[in-house]
């Protein structure tokens, strides 16, 4: 059985509403709804909290859903995540060098410099998103 | 004479600055809560300040390296506040992203019109 079906089944067994679960787990009701509609997956910490709340084991929640297992494997792959952040930093460093070289060649490259700065800003935004994703 | 391009440039810079201030305020508060929950020394002002300073999120990365040795001990109130702040930070990131994209649009228009 897939995790979305199980989550709904166990919640109803405990006679809880989606709002009750959301309040206990400090997430939005929409998040709980998304988990039960298979639009999104809970992370490993939320899964542990859900298993405690529904009084079932993690095995009972996770086993049998290959997509969920794949999601957990990807979301807990720290090495891959660190590589993404390091790649983001490297790109930003290269963009800084481009700006410095650009201005040393010609001061007329100001508009291009502004765009490179905008790209650095966008890249920093993505890096920050990655850093805060699993805060 | 002020053209539409000048307005676009001013608006995009304004959005970027607003997004940055918004982010700095909320990141500061979140790191303050997180550092307190982990009982990190100087977590009340120094680490939040380091986290919001520096280009390229360097300070934040330093904090993430520092906090690895300190397990979190969140109270229910702090956890709820942290979730709210995290959402606010995502909003700030979206604001910055919009500002950055507008700035690129401005350059595109500048090049296209010359």
Question: Please, could you describe this protein's structure?
Answer:
The complex is a heterodimer of chains A (135) and B (114). Chain A is built from eight helices and no strands. Chain A has 135 residues and is mainly alpha-helical. The longest helix of chain A has 28 residues. The mean pLDDT of chain A is 82. Chain B is mainly α and 114 residues long. The longest helix of chain B is centred in the last third of the chain and has 37 residues. The mean pLDDT of chain B is 87. Chains A and B meet through helix 7 and helix 8 of A and helix 1, helix 3 and helix 4 of B.
Short description:
The complex is a heterodimer of chains A (135) and B (114). Helices cover 77% and strands 0% of the residues of chain A.
> In DSSP terms, counting alpha (H) and pi (I) runs of 4 or more, how many helices of chain B?
4
SSE string of chain A, helices as H and strands as E: HHHHHHHH
Largest sheet report of chain B: none
Helix vs. strand class of chain A: mainly alpha
What's the rounded overall pLDDT mean of chain B? 87
Cα-based radius of gyration of chain B, to the nearest Å: 18 Å
Percent of residues of chain B in beta strands? under 5%
Rounded mean pLDDT of chain A is: 82
Flag low-confidence runs of chain A: none
- Rounded to the nearest angstrom, the distance between the terminal CA atoms of chain A is 30 Å
Helix percentage of chain B: over 70%
* Quaternary structure classification: heterodimer
Give the termini separation of chain B: 17 Å
What is the H-and-E element order of chain B? HHHH
Q: Provide the structure class of chain B.
A: mainly alpha
Residues in helices of chain A, as a percent range: over 70%
How is the secondary structure organized here?
The complex is a heterodimer of chains A (135) and B (114).
Chain A: H1 3-13, H2 18-25, H3 29-36, H4 44-53, H5 58-62, H6 66-75, H7 78-105, H8 110-133
Helix pairs in contact in A: 2-3, 7-8
Chain B: H1 4-37, H2 46-52, H3 58-67, H4 76-112
């Amino acid at each position: 059985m897939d995790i979305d079906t199980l989550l709904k089944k166990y919640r109803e067994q405990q006679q809880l509403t989606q709002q009750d679960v959301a309040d206990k787990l400090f997430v939005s009701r929409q998040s709980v709804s998304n988990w039960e509609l298979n639009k999104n997956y809970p992370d490993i910490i939320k899964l542990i909290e859900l298993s405690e709340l529904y009084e079932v084991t993690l095995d009972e929640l996770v086993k049998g859903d290959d997509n969920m297992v794949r999601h957990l494997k990807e979301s807990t792959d720290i090495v891959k995540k660190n590589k993404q952040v390091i790649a983001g930093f490297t790109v930003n460093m290269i963009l800084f060098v481009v700006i410095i070289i650009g201005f040393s060649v010609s001061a007329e490259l100001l508009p291009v410099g502004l765009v490179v700065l905008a790209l650095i800003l966008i890249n920093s935004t993505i890096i920050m998103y990655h850093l805060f994703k699993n805060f | 004479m002020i053209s539409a391009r000048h307005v676009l440039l001013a608006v995009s810079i304004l959005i970027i600055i607003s997004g940055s201030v918004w982010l700095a305020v909320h990141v500061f508060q979140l790191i303050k809560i997180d550092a307190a929950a982990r009982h990190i020394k100087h977590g009340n002002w120094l680490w939040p300040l380091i986290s919001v300073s520096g280009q390229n999120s360097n300070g934040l990365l330093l904090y993430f390296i520092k906090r690895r040795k300190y397990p979190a001990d969140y109270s229910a109130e702090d956890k709820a506040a942290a979730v709210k702040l995290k959402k606010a930070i995502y909003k700030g990131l979206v604001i910055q992203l919009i500002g950055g994209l507008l700035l690129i649009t401005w350059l595109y228009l500048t090049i296209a019109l010359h």
